[in-house]
Amino acid sequence: MFAYRSGAIGREELEAITARMIPRxxxxxxxxxxxxxxxxxxxxxxxxxxxxxEGTQPMWxxxxxxxxxxxxxxxxxxxxxxxxxxxxARFHSHSDTEVLLALYRRDGARMTDLLRGMFAFAIWxxxxxxxxxxxDPYGIKPLYLADDGATIRIASEVKALLAGGKVPAAVDxxxxxxxxxxxxxxxxxxxxxxxxxxxxxxxxxxxDGRGIVDERRFFSIAEIFRxxxxxxxxxxxxxxxxxxxxxxxxxxxxxVPVGVFLSAGIDSSxxxxxxxxxxxxxxxxxxxxxxSEAPLAERFARELGTxxxxxxxxxxxxLADLPRFFERMDQPTIDGVNTWFISKAVHEAxxxxxxxxxxxxxxxxxxxxxxxxxxxxxxxxxxxxxxxxRRHPKAxxxxxxxxxxxxAYLLQRGLFLPGxxxxxxxxxxxxxxxxxxxxxxIIERTLAPDPETPFGRVxxxxxxxxxxxxxxxxxxxxxxxxxxxxxxxxxxxYLLRQLAHMLPQQRDKSALAANLPGYLRDRPKTxxxxxxxxxxxxxxxxxxxxxxxxARRVWESLSRA
Length: 561
Known about the structure:
Layout: E1 2-3, H1 11-20, E2 28-33, E3 40-45, E4 59-60, E5 66-74, H2 77-86, H3 96-107, E6 117-125, E7 130-135, E8 144-147, E9 151-155, H4 158-163, H5 173-182, E10 196-197, E11 202-207, E12 211-217, H6 221-227, H7 236-251, E13 258-261, H8 266-276, E14 282-288, H9 294-304, E15 307-313, H10 315-328, H11 337-348, E16 353-355, H12 360-364, H13 369-378, H14 380-389, H15 398-401, H16 405-413, H17 421-425, H18 427-437, H19 439-445, H20 454-480, E17 485-487, H21 493-499, H22 510-513, H23 518-521, H24 532-536, H25 543-558
Parallel strand pairs: 13-14, 13-16, 14-15, 16-17
Antiparallel strand pairs: 1-9, 2-3, 4-5, 5-6, 6-7, 7-11, 8-9, 8-10, 11-12
């Protein structure tokens, strides 16, 4: 928290905000308030790198001039530390957190250009009386801000900000509209009107007396694709495999054992295979009585020589967990059930860190959207005719929306259509929500600057919208509810920079699948099925209808103050 115009930080509020996040960091915690009462920092720690007390936050640098709170991991911290030590930097710990302090002292805001990892952090500089705030390129780690004109409050959870008692709980109609359109609340909106998400790949300072200044965008997915230069001299498949293997190696950096979420899919299987070459591994598979890919995953785990845990979840356990599931869900989402239970299994096994295959479809073009959206934009009449033949409810809107990438994406990913919102939210809330949200503008912003290729455009939209607002956000809250850190080797800014020039040509997962056994490599893509219909007696007429019913249940639970 930072009181930048008037008033002082209340220690009780700071401690209440921090206490809400104990599951995110059960190992240690602390708070600090400046002598003048205008700056306060609080942290909870999940000890993964440098398990000693020296790694506890808030952390000061050796000179006692900089203090930080940090959520995430910096995977190249050892290389950065070596560089800093050659320049004369001194350290009192072996943590990646202290490397951030030394890097800020040396490079200031430009430090973010050197970081490989997932991060959300704030550094208070007593010399300049400014706070530096940054969030990682993809938004793997959440960061939210509330500014009431007198005090700026920042936290890793919307519910944590509300727990302090000073941030209003009024629901944002834009969040309501966005959730029912897309199945999650699109950033920068949050479910609470007075809280916004800090944009990924950005940094800024909070100045004593002036508030937020010197905002800087240091990463853009669309820009990476725009600037990518095609290289036909490289064997694309080999290059992709080598770069992914390098990313997996970085994501294994840890002072505690690391696990892997293992389904029978290409992405998680490839990650498990690459990780098992480097370290003893514990793999985890989720199974349901109604649906299970466990036999294939267990067979592969035996071949890799990992310690395998298969966790079977039944309806009774789901219903028993449902109240806590909603209590820990930070923002409404139609997803997260699978991550909740697999993270629960990881926690039960005493593991703190797990790698996930999230991001493979966005990186390598694994979704139907990579074909459907460019086709809809180029041939809207054919797309409309195909939709009409299938009696698809969205077919009649293709002429209106399908001529642009943003409009086609809304049709491709939409849960409900804009015209359906008044019947769900009421006329007034739906109207205000759509006016505030401007859904097409939200999507169009992910395409600035223009990535220039159909693949780049769809990749930018999928990574900036579906992946960020749903998959990554759900991976964070649902895992941290069980004190488990999820790492995503396929969601890596370094990896994207290395591969962007060849992804439009290498637009499948053959590179990842090449070394997998045939029973995994050659099976059709199925997606991950959670038996919500059977568990909650939801309507049976199609997956879309089931998810619409579940969405209403989620919104009812999360929109209460």
